[in-house]
Design goal:
Blueprint (H helix, E strand, L loop, with lengths): L22 E4 L5 H12 L3 H4 L3 E5 L5 H5 L3 H10 L3 E6 L6 H6 L3 E3 L57 E3 L8 E4 L4 E3 L8 E4 L3 E7 L2 E4 L8 E7 L3 E4 L2 E4 L10 E8 L2 E9 L6
Parallel strand pairs: 1-2, 2-3, 3-4, 5-7, 6-8, 7-9, 8-10, 9-11, 10-12
Antiparallel strand pairs: 11-14, 12-13, 14-15
Length: 278
């Protein structure tokens, strides 16, 4: 068999490492009678929000014996039925790794960078134990005049660090995803259809919002979405969302502020958008 020499050909691909944002499903119980109904109840109503989103399955909290009872092929099929795209399993026991691979999933090691909050040290209370007979209490001396404590030095007062704000100056094109893990996200251009912008805080789009925007993804119900021209495929604040087909005609292509209300998302029209023509 003659192999062709490709040493002189131009490279047609590259392999690079990348840090991507992906949802993680932390499994705590493998009983199918409990796991699948709860997944359907939680994800089913927000199917459009999770549609085609990659998801990683984490088994750190599941003992090896329970992992052996988990049918990974059934789990991946069920998740795909909810619109998710399972990509791998993290912290799987060695005894189930082959079953994970047979289900078409990757095998990842346990997460090594997790935040832990050290418990506060309890105050130690020392009770006096008398070794000798108690002597009579001495007569009280005249009270000393109060001494004013010095004012705290402002230089030593701890400063409150504000969450950073991410600013994007170029348009977010179809297929791109921009994520602000902390603070607000400001887009000084448009978000095209098929693009996705995600932020822990507020999202400001100083252009047309035609893709998907998700604010307050870490649970900040006070987060807002501001857009100069509102016509998104999907917009969400925490767990409340609206898809394009459900938008009221009064908000489409207008300047809008979107917030989380008691009964879902609220759209406040701030003005009409009319692009300037040169």
């Amino acid at each position: 068999m003659k192999l062709s020499d490709t040493s002189g050909e131009a490279s047609v691909f590259e392999l690079k490492g990348s840090v991507l944002t992906v949802m993680v499903l932390y499994v705590k119980e493998t009983n199918p009678d409990l796991l699948y109904p709860q997944l359907k109840k939680k994800i089913g109503p927000a199917r459009s929000f999770f549609n085609n989103a990659p998801i990683l399955i984490d088994l750190k909290a599941v003992p090896e014996g329970e992992q052996l009872r988990l049918d990974f092929l059934v789990l991946t099929t069920f998740l795909r039925g909810l619109g998710l795209v399972p990509v791998g399993v993290r912290a799987a026991a060695e005894t189930v790794e082959q079953r994970v691979l047979d289900a078409g999933l990757g095998v990842l090691p346990p997460a090594t960078r997790e935040k832990h909050v050290a418990p506060q040290e309890e105050e130690q209370v020392i009770e006096p134990v008398p070794d000798e007979p108690v002597e009579p209490e001495p007569k009280p001396e005249p009270a000393a005049e109060p001494v004013a404590e010095p004012a705290p030095d402002p230089k030593q007062t701890p400063e409150v660090t504000a969450a950073p704000t991410m600013v994007i100056r170029q348009p977010v094109r179809s297929g791109q995803q921009v994520v602000a893990q902390e603070g607000d996200l400001i887009i000084l251009a448009s978000v095209n259809a098929g693009a996705e912008v995600v932020a822990s805080g507020n999202i400001h789009v100083y252009g047309a919002l035609r893709g998907r925007a998700m604010a307050g993804v870490h649970g900040d119900a006070d987060a807002r979405v501001f857009c100069l021209q509102c016509n998104p495929e999907l917009v969400a604040v925490t767990d409340a969302y609206v898809v394009n087909d459900s938008l009221e005609s009064r908000v489409i292509n207008h300047t809008v502020m979107i917030s989380r209300g008691e009964n879902g998302l609220e759209f406040d029209v701030l003005g009409a958008f009319e692009p300037q023509r040169g």
